[in-house]
Amino acid sequence: MLQSFIVKIIALLCFISLLSGCTAEKAADKPEGEHVVTVDVAPVLSTSISLKVTSDALLYPLQQASIIPKTSAPVKKFYVDRGVRVRAGQLLAELENRDLTAAVAETQAAYEQAEANYQTVLKATGPEEAQKSEIDVRTAKEVMDQQQKLYESRQALYKEGAISQKDVNDAQVTLAQARNQHEIAQKHLETVQSVSREQTLKGAAAQRDAAKARFENAEAQLSYSRITSPIDGVVTDRPIFAGEMASNGAPMITLMDVSQVIARAHVSQDDAKHLKVGDAANLVLPDASALIPGKVSVISPALDPANTTVEVWVQAANPNGRLKPGTSVRAEMIAETVPSALVIPQNAVLTSSSGNTSVMVVDSENKPRRKPVTLGIRDGGNVQVSEGLASGERVVTIGAFELAKLDEEVFAKTKVQIQPPKEEEDEDEK
After folding, report:
1. Packing angle between helix 126-160 and helix 165-194, nearest 10 degrees?
2. ∠ CA 274-279-280 to the nearest 5 degrees?
3. pLDDT tens, 121-163?
4. What is the pLDDT of residues 185-222, one digit of tens each?
5. Which residues pair with 284 in a beta bridge?
6. Which one of 236, 263, 284, 401 has the minimum C-beta count within 10 Å?
7. Rounded to an integer, what distance in angstroms lies between the CA atom of residue 21 and that of residue 40?
8. What distances in angstroms separate CA 426 from CA 288, 349, 377, one per listed residue?
9. Each residue of 59-81: pLDDT tens digit?
10. Res 306: pLDDT
11. What is the separation of C-alpha 253 from the centre of its chain, rounded to a whole number of angstroms?
């Protein structure tokens, strides 16, 4: 029993002696006062970087038309169904229009009659009327002169006793009638001469134009009974059936052009300042299965009064109809791209309370050094360094904040121990 206890004591003393030797050996390897910090580093890369503005967006069709009839009438026939692709100008439906057809025929006849009257006035009526009036005046004057001579002759015969008083009175009455006819013809001639040919033509032209306007209005009413497509697209809704009344207050057919889609997003005023029409963009689907390329097509010149944001439209092609209007997507707008920039991870940047930015750089001897930097655009977890670094330098990512907290005296004696990449650790474990 005693012998076993002595053996254990000797083994413990040997272990303590060995441990002391190892500690002394490590102390001999490490310089006196040196501080070691384990960190992760990343190289300064020369690559492209883009300034991106991202926002949730809602998809809309490129064009949409809700066709509301301009006249109330039963639907005579539909020529399309839901889901049918149509072309601009294609006949979609026809309303009952027999009364409108009759109105067109009636007003057309009235217009043709007015046109014929105008042509008559233009070519003949004016000159002939004036000429006829002049002839009537001359004829009436001749008749009046003859009756005057007859009256005077009978007066002379009466004085001689050759005729009776009754014959003189009859001649006097006939003379009075001739004078009246002459006065009427004279006044008619004056009236015809006072109305110029130009005014007569204007009156006939006005009647013709009024008849033409009524005819064109009847034609327009008839055309409203023929419903045609204003755009290329797909019939997405047709709420009524043939025989039902088409109201002039509600859509009877809805069309959408989904060959392209518009993603409407709302971004902050600061982000909108970086964007311009024509900037490249991407639409990210909810399942993140693919990026749909597009372009910024509209930037609203006014703020949304509800949330003081700026509405931005991104237009993208939709050849296979994969994108459905009403879908929520993520719009990623590329405001600026620097093709050759010095790029580092965002988590390597240290920002002071005054707003100055710096990084911890590791030299070839694994000594850290703080460098002030000027930053440019950011893209996700990366940031551009416009001043302060060179390509190939190493910056501290994880551990930079701990190094920044060290006192200057301790920091001057600090060396970093760089963690191996995770891939290498995984391979070593395997």
Report:
1. 160
2. 125
3. 777 555 666 778 888 888 989 999 998 988 888 888 888 887 8
4. 888 877 766 666 667 778 889 999 999 999 999 999 99
5. 291, 330
6. 401
7. 32
8. 29, 28, 34
9. 999 999 999 998 888 999 999 99
10. 87
11. 21
The token pair that represents 145 in the structure block = 């002169």
Q: Which of 265, 277, 280, 272 shows the shortest CA–CA distance to 316?
A: 280
Question: Quick one: pLDDT at residue 375?
Answer: 93
pLDDT exceeds cutoff 70 at 1 = no
For the chain, percent of residues with pLDDT exceeding 70:
87
Q: What is the pLDDT of residue 55?
A: 94
pLDDT in tens, 339-356: 899 999 999 999 998 989
- Residue 15 vs residues 12, 19, 24, 25, 27: alpha-carbon distances, Å: 5, 6, 14, 15, 18
- What token pair was written down for 377? 């655009």
